[in-house]
Amino acid sequence: MIRATLFLFILLLHPALWASDINKTISNGDQAFYGKLLHGLEKNKHPSEEITLQKNLLHRLINLNSKLKSDPVEFTVPKDRASYSKLFAYFIEQTVLKHTQKQRLIEMTQHKELINDQISLMHNSDPAMMSRQLEYAFYHKAEKIYRTKVERRQKAIETLPALFLQGMSHRIFDNKELQEDIKLMTSEFTKLDEKIKKVKLEQDRLNLLEKNSEASRLSEKIKQLQDKRQNFIQEKTVILFELFSMALKNKSTEAFDYEDQLMSELKGLHNGSVVSEDLAFILKTMSTETLGTAKRISGAFMSEVGNVLSNIWKFINKPIVMINEAPLTLFKIIVSLIIFFSSFYLGSLYKKFINHYTRKKRSFKRTTKTLLANIGNYIIIISALFLSLNVLGINLTSIALIAGALSVGIGFGLQNIVSNFVSGLILMFERSIKVGDFIEINEQLRGHVMDIRMRSTTINTNSNIDVIVPNQDLIQKHVINWTMSDDIRRFDVPFGVAYGTDPQKVIDVVLEALHKSKFDDIYEDNDKKCRVVMNGMNESSVDFELLVWLKGENILYAKRTMSRFLVLVYNTLYQHNISIPFPQRDLHLRSVDKDALIQITSK
After folding, report:
1. pLDDT digits (tens, 9 = 90+) for 210-224
2. Is this model's pTM higher than 0.70 or not?
């Protein structure tokens, strides 16, 4: 028995058993039903707080249906510019109102669900139950009414593209008038912005002076100016829509440009984000109906590409820092780098042009060609450098500062680079060493000068090895230029004969053999004669030298040329039975062991 009583007590306490439901009769009642309930409550001469709440709720329920009837949404076909513009402005107004009603719809739904949860936890005998039921009925009916309003406005907005297209078909657009209007509107808009800035500046000044009353009056003025600014923006969107419609009527792709401007201008409105979705639908529908789907897609794509490019342009032109009161932007940096690095390409093209041009002109020497090519290349690069600095906003009069910084850098390690550069310029203008010359720096390094650049000179040896020599080495050290003035050089070919040989005979046979040789590079004139001279008497030989003058390329190949004449001398001496000595030594023994002497003698 005790267990049964306890179980029954627990069941009675459980909300699911005594929880109340929504009273459908109250929530679905009409004005007459709510009128009867109100009439009954008004008989109570001492109403409580709950009774007063219920009476107010009934009054509001009775008035709900009349609010729905007093909210008509009607659009008509525009027949002139005034009605066309008015229809677009009315569309913005109705779109904003639809958004507001949608927000109210969401609120009503949330309130209804909250009241439903409260009713489910109440007992039917609760004094507040009637109030909760009437509250639920009010939010339930308000939800339906706001949903109906939103749906009604949405359907009306969906009919707008057809109305605009009908109005566009029999309306004459005046492009000149529209352009003048948009220009005037833009000018007034700029003036208004300047005025707002000035008033705000004055307000800040008054706040600093602690004149709070005067500053507060300016706040009201700023609000009025900002409201006027909003009206300007809305008027500008109307004109842009007319320009869009005119472009559509003419089947021009300019419509997509006006569409972008219109959507961009909406961002300045307080409720621009609310209007943008419905406006995008209207613009898309009108352009698709007029231009076709394919043209709409291609036009929208090109418009989107244009927007992307426009955003990129704005980004790269955004100031990074200020230089000489001029903004430094990413675009300027890119342009300056393009100019500077393009100079190297232009310099190479200039060199190719000089090489091609001088190849046809025999009057140009190789040295002159190289000088023209290198100097022109340097002028192009330096000019591009100054132009790049000018693009960046660096005043060329401030180059002295850069030169000062460079001088510090030179003192800390750039002196070799500058020295080589100056040495290269000296070599080019002095022409003591020219491209094509055969020079000798030391016994191991000799060869043709292939190129003289800003920092170094390239020498190609007879072994076909390119050697990079710093320019300052050619200025500061001893350098032998084999071909500075001409290609004539004397070779001194040394040889020796044995003692007892007639020196004159040696001279005669060697010169005779030289003259009978078929070497066409041997050169002789009044000043330059081939000779054989005796220049010493060594321990084992009488030393001679063949002095032979040569002209032509063979002078550049010393080893090969020397070998040729040594072979000639050797064959000549051999043919005339003239001995070529080799070192001989006499051994004198001061003391010898007797046993060793006996052994040597016996042998």
Report:
1. 888 888 888 888 888
2. no
